[in-house]
Amino acid sequence: MEAIPPHGDEPSPLDIPPWNDLKPQTNPVNEEAADIRAIKIVVSVTLGVTLLLAAGYLAAVVISDGAILLRPSELALERHEAYESLVNHPQDDLRGNGVVVCIVDSGIDTTHSDLADARMGGWKDFVNGRTTPYDDHGHGTSMAGILVANGWLKGVANEVELLVAKALGANGSGDDGVVAQAIDWCVASGAHVVSLSLGGAPGILPFSFGGGDRSSGDAANDAIDEGVYVVAAAGNDGGENDDGDVAHPASEASVIAVGGVTLQGTHWSGSSEGDNNGRILPLPVLLPRNDPDRKPEVVAPAEAVPVLLNDGSWGLADGTSAATVYVTGAIALLLESKPELIPGENAGNAENVETVKQWLMDSVTPQEGQAGHDDKYGYGLLNIRALLDASQG
C-alpha cells in the first residue's frame, strides 16, 4: 500500500516562488483612495504647522510691539552703505585691531547675531551689579553695533577689543557721578578710547547732576591727561529747544564733541548747537573756546542710522549718539595705523589728544561755503580716509 504523507501533499521547495515575486492582490479603487488620504494628511499637517508659525509670529509682534526681522530691511542696508560712503570709510585692512574701546551706556545684548564675533574684553554693571552682560534698555546695544557689528551690518571698527560699562538704567537715565565712576573704570581697564553716547537718542534721558563731588567732566579730563581719547555726544536739543551749548561732558575743552548730519550731509535739526564765544549768563559760565576745541568739533551720521536692537532685530535710530560712535570708530582706525599714539604706561598724554583733534579739524569736509568753525556743523563732516591721510603727513 502506498504511504500517504501527513497533512496532505506539501509542495516541493522548487515549487515555491521567491519571496520578492510574491505580490499581494490589489484593488485599483482602494489604492487611489489611500493616495488621496495620504495627500490630505500631508496638506493638513502643512497647514497646521503654517498656522502655528503664523500665530507665534503674530503673538511675538504683539508682545514686542513691532515686527520681528530675520534680517535688516533693504532700506536699512542701503542707508548703512550710504553712510559708510558719506564718512569715506576705508574699505581696507584697518578694522581697529589692537585698540581698546570702552562704551559707557545702558549695556549690551551679546546674543544678537551681528555681535557674535564681538571681542568683549570687559564688562562692569554700575547700576545693578550683574556680572553677565545685558541691556535692559537697548541703547547700548545699538551703539555697540555701530562700532563692532559683524553680520548684516558692519561696524566702523569691528575688530577692536570692547569694554562695556553699564551706567544707564532701564529707563535710559543715569547719574553723573555713576558715569564718572564708569569712565574711571574704563581707564583703569586699559581703554584707549572712551565713547559717551549719553543723552544722545530719543528716549534717552539726560543724566542728573549732583551725584557726588566728582563729575563725568572731571573723569573725562583725567582720562585725557593720561592720553585716553574721550568722544561724547553733542546732544539732541537742537532747534527751538536748544539750551545754547553742547551737552556735558562734551562741553569739556578736550573732549571731542560730535554733532549730527542727515543722509545728505546737511545739519540734522535735532543736533545741539555749540556756544564758543563765552558767556556769563545763563549759567553755567562759559569761557571762549579756541581751535581745535570749538564745539562741536565734528559732525557724523545722526538721522535714521541703521542699528541693532536688543530683541535680536534691526532698526533705524536718530541722534548724536550714533554720530558719536562713528567718530569713536574713526579714532580707533587712526590708532591702529598710528600705534605710537595709543596711551600706555610709557606713552600717551593730552598733547596726543590735541594732535588728533587738530587732524580732525584739518581733515573734515566743510559745508559748501563754510569758512572756519560753524556752531552747528563744527569744523565739518567726518572724513575717515582724509583723517588717516592727515596723520601720515
Tally of contiguous helical segments: 8
The CATH architecture term is: 3-Layer(aba) Sandwich
Overall shape: elongated
The number of distinct β-strands equals 9
Main β-sheet, spatial strand arrangement: 2-3-1-4-5-6-7
Provide the residue-averaged pLDDT. 85
CATH topology assignment: Rossmann fold
Please identify which CATH superfamily we are dealing with: Peptidase S8/S53 domain
Helix-strand pattern, N to C?
HHEEHEHEHEEEEEHHH
Instruction: Report the portion of residues in β strands.
Output: 5-15%
Helix amount, in percent? Answer: 25-40%
Report how far apart the termini are.
125 Å
Q: How many individual domains?
A: 1
Which class do the helix and strand fractions yield?
alpha/beta
* Uncertain parts: 1-26, 57-67
Largest sheet, described in full?
7 strands, parallel
What is the CATH domain class? Alpha Beta
How large is the radius of gyration? Answer: 31 Å
